Amino acid sequence: MILFNGRKDVKTVRAQIVLRAGAYYNEGVEIKCSQCGAAIAISPESGFITCPYCDSRLYLETGQTVAHSYLKPALKPEQVPGALVNGLAELELNRPVSLTESELVFVPFWEIKLKDGRLRFPASQLELAELGDFSIPAGAMVPYDAEIEQKAKVEMPEVGLDKIMHQPGIVKIKDSIEKADLVHVPFYKVVYKYGDESYSAMVDAGAGKLYADKLPVSLGREKDRYFLIRFGILSAVFLLEAFFVRGFWLLMLVAAATGATAWYLVGKDIAKKGY
Q1: How do residues 123-148 score in pLDDT, each as one tens digit?
Q2: Most buried of 128, 202, 237, 267 (most Cβ within 10 A)?
Q3: Domain extents for the chain?
Q4: Residue 247, Cα to own-chain centre: how many angstroms?
Q5: From the centroid of its chain, how far is CA 168?
Q6: What secondary structure does DSSP assign to 174-201, as a single string?
Q7: Residue 109 belongs to what H/E stretch?
Q8: 247: alpha, beta or left? (left if phi > 0; alpha if psi -120 to 50)
Q9: Interval 222-260: pLDDT, tens
Q10: How far apart are CA 171 and CA 179, in angstroms?
């Protein structure tokens, strides 16, 4: 996955895009704007470009241009810990959380606009499989602004639009396709501590929703598992006692001692764990 953050890296990556776009472009070669149809001169530094006639933000993809937009982050960096805590609380994960790392990343998606709807496809390998279910809010996109490259990491598309368009499902509905856009969506990539374990996740920088492939075990499920394991162990001990101890009253005495010991130890452990 190619990431860039700063003008020097942007130029290098953009040159790679132009070389990848189907030919080794020379100065003076032109390509049409997908929005107004005007001819745009292509240079080795093209990639994310702006039409000089209609001011549309464009992306150069396999010898053509597509509209390029992004979602502005609504969540400020100082709001990320709160969004993380709220997201975990919705899952009944209410223990103290410590945020150890947070980084704003813009993830690219292809958005295919149909006559009666929209389709969305990741334009790069996703950090989390769950991000594949992300829904781009309608009407929230704005023309791409190169200034975000100075403030955050911006992932370059790895999956070409041509590959998306040749998928069997897309080919079947090609007559209903109106246009395709490249959209960069902001997420905070976070690492946090919950209890004694560290976890990673992505927080939607627009709505604050939490995405993660692995989450801590909720307190309710942790308690259920704890008591189930203790019940299984105690049941096994009682069965062994019933098999080896001879005499009814002796067995009752041993079982009572076992139960009292288990009650004391489990109670002490519960107090320590805060159940």
Answers
A1: 988 888 888 878 877 667 888 888 88
A2: 202
A3: 3-211, 219-273
A4: 63
A5: 26
A6: GGGEEEEEEEEEEEEEEEEEETTEEEEE
A7: strand 97-114
A8: left
A9: 666 777 888 889 899 889 988 888 888 888 998 899 989
A10: 14
